[in-house]
Each structure stands twice: as structure tokens, then as C-alpha cells.
């Protein structure tokens, strides 16, 4: 699948932009639905969609902040249920765990509040995504204090909260606890999450144990289980085991490969530079009748870009345009990162301008890639321009962005600006990490300011000790 790529894909598969039919059927237990009406789409509506989306985000942020402020007071015990519950759902959906827990604490103070396991399950799943196992454990205890009996959903969410943070001992222990509770035996969804967490941390030895237990209990693997194992093997570069698991999946008869399977094979081979293998598997899945989605194309763009195959990267983007696959923020971030790392500043800028022109809103990752590229070629003026963009936007910044911008100004010798950004991290609710301190220390040492460098080294040690103490207390 070399030069004939665009011809082969266009002739062998009638692509459409809709790929929902390829999704595996899973139980919708933890999906948090917004109570707000979705904007209608249409030819005119598409042009207004970016502004509507921005307006929705701003309203959501304002609602969450408003409820957060009330949560800090003890006098708000008769709030309107709809507003409070919507704010909680929005905070969960945005994975703003601190806000969500604060709003939930306020919810529990209301005279009309009734404890529900479903609410706890949603919160626990969110805490798992946010890597907050200690908070999840405390929330689980709160549920007991309210007299609730945990359901399978709640226990499964707790397994996820532990497992996604790598606390596999606690995750397995929770599964054992489930077995001792009446009508709360672990099911296929519990085991699938456990398998997914083991695969994520490359504990394939534990996966064999889980599969053996499932077989003993008469629980058959589903597509989610197989896809989790395939994805884990792929990311670990264990291609033979990956192929064997796909064969097991096909022979199972109860589940079939889908677009997630396709993406795992494309992503794994592309990541490890096996471009021909990636293209081969892409064609193989086409023959199985499995259509790609936007994620497939984003993975291929990244793989081609990483391999320096810019013509093929452009071919994929052209194909997407012909087949009405709308590029996402991930698509543009990938292209910007590829050209930025290659030093192709002009091409990078062109795609950044095109992205904004089409109404795709840049995020922290976009700006981080731009700053890294400009820093690499010594264009500090361009970095100043990016900072003006950021200041005039509502983009949510994170610690990696601050690390990137602090490093850029540090390398340029602008220690004043670097220090201002370090102080501004707290205002943006971003905590400095070891990379932040390392950038500051390196910048001060390079300017011969050893005393200032030592100060930040002491701050880094103090910060680590405080974190260790907090974890022990939890």
C-alpha cells in the first residue's frame, strides 16, 4: 500500500463520515447526560457552531464557578435542584474533580437530597480518569456512611479508580470484596476494566490470571476485553501476541473485530515505525468490512509524519477532505507538532492559520507545540505573540504548557518573564512539577545565578516531601 494508497482505499471501501455502527455494544452505566438541549445542525448552523460551542463552554464554566462559590458557604441549603444537578454533571463531564466534589458536598446539604448509588458511580469513574484513587477511597467510605449498599456499578467504578492509577493490588482486592457481597458478583464489565488496567501497565501476567478466573466463572470475553488486550500488546510492541489475540477474538464467535481493533493495529505499527505493516493491516481490515474513523486517519497522519513521509501525510488529509471527514483539533495538533519538530515553521504556521480560519479552537497542546517549535529556532518574538493569543482567549492551560513556555523563556535568557510565568501558574490552578523546577534551576544556573537555582531546588524537595506526607495521611 504505497503509491496506490489513495486509489485502493477509495475503490475498496465506500467510506462515510458516520462510523457509529462500528462501535461495540457496551452497557451505558456511567454515561453522564447533560440536561441541556443540543444545538441543531444545518448548513447555516455549521457556521455558527464554533460561537455556540464557545458560548456553551462559558455558560458551563460560569455555572460551575457559581455553584463552587456557594459550596464554600454553609448558608445555601435550599438551592434549585436542576441548577445544582446540571452543575455537578458538567463538572463530572469536564473531569473537574475538585469542583465536582465541592458541588457534591453542597448537594448533600440540601433538604431534598437523597443518596443514590448512580451518583457515586459517576463520581468514582471521574476520579479514576483523573487519577485520584485516594479521593475515590474516601468517597466510597462516605457512601457507606449514608447507609447505601454498593452496587456492581459502584464497585466496578472503584476498581477503575484504583486500576487506572496503577494500584492493581487494591483493584484486585476490590474484586475479591465484591464476591463476598450478595447480588454484587463481578461481571464482564468489571473484568474488562480490570484487564484494561493490567494491559495499560503491561502486567500481562495478571491478565492471564483474570482470563482464567473468567473462564472458571463462565464469563466470556467481549469485544472490549479483547480490544483492551490487543491495545496493551500493541503499545508494548508485542506484535506476535497482538496477532494471536486477534485470532482468538475471531475464533470466539461471540464478538468481532471493530474500528477500535483497527485503530490499535494502525497505531501500534505506526508508532514503532512499521509503516508497511500499518498499511497492510489497514487493507486487511478493509477486506473485513471494517471502516476507518477520524481516529484512524489521525493515527496514520502521526505515523507518516513521524517517519518524515509528508507526501503520504498530505494524501491522508486530502482523502479525508474528499470523503467529508472533518479534521479535529487532534488532526491539526498532530500536523502542527510534526512540522514543528521538523523545523518546518512556515508549514506549521500555515496549518495553524487554516485551523483558526475553519473555526477549530486551539488548545493547550496546540500552543505547546507552537512554543516548542519557535523556541527551537530562536523566534522569541513569535513566543510573545503566542502569549498574547493565550491571554486573550479562554483556553484552559495546564502544567505541561507552563513547563514548555518557562523552558522557552529560560533558554532565551529572559528570567524575568520566566519568573512571572512561574508565579502565574497558581492563578491558573496549575501546580509546578519536577519538570517545572528543573527548567527554572537550569535557567538560573546557566546565568550563573546559583543562589536562585538552589532556592528552587529546595522548593522542589519541599514540594515532593509535602506530597509524600499527604499521600501517607490519605
Q: Biggest sheet, open or closed, and with what strands and sense?
A: none
CATH first level of the domain at 116-219: Mainly Alpha
Number of strand elements:
0
Continuous helix count: 24
Query: What is the CATH T-level topology of the domain at 116-219?
Result: Serine Threonine Protein Phosphatase 5, Tetratricopeptide repeat
Mean pLDDT across all amino acids: 82
Helix content: 55-70%
Order of secondary-structure elements = HHHHHHHHHHHHHHHHHHHHHHHH
CATH architecture of the domain at 116-219: Alpha Horseshoe
CATH homolog superfamily of the domain at 116-219: Tetratricopeptide repeat domain
Estimated structural class: mainly alpha
The separation of the N and C termini measures: 54 Å
Low-confidence stretches: 1-59, 467-474
Fraction in beta strands: under 5%
Short summary of the structure?
69% of the residues lie in helices and 0% in strands. The chain has 474 residues and is an all-alpha fold.
What does this structure look like?
With 474 residues, the protein is mostly helical. Among the domains are: 52-114, no CATH class; 116-219, Tetratricopeptide repeat domain (Serine Threonine Protein Phosphatase 5, Tetratricopeptide repeat, Alpha Horseshoe). It contains 24 helices and no strands. It has helices at 5-12, 43-71, 81-93, 97-108, 117-129, 133-145, 152-163, 168-179, 188-200, 204-217, 223-235, 239-252, 259-271, 275-287, 294-306, 310-322, 329-341, 345-357, 364-376, 380-391, 399-411, 415-424, 434-446, 450-473. Helix 8 (168-179) runs antiparallel to helix 9 (188-200) and helix 22 (415-424) runs antiparallel to helix 23 (434-446). The longest helix is centred in the first third of the chain and has 29 residues, at 43-71. The N and C termini lie far apart (54 Å). Mean pLDDT is 82; it is low at 1-59 and 467-474.
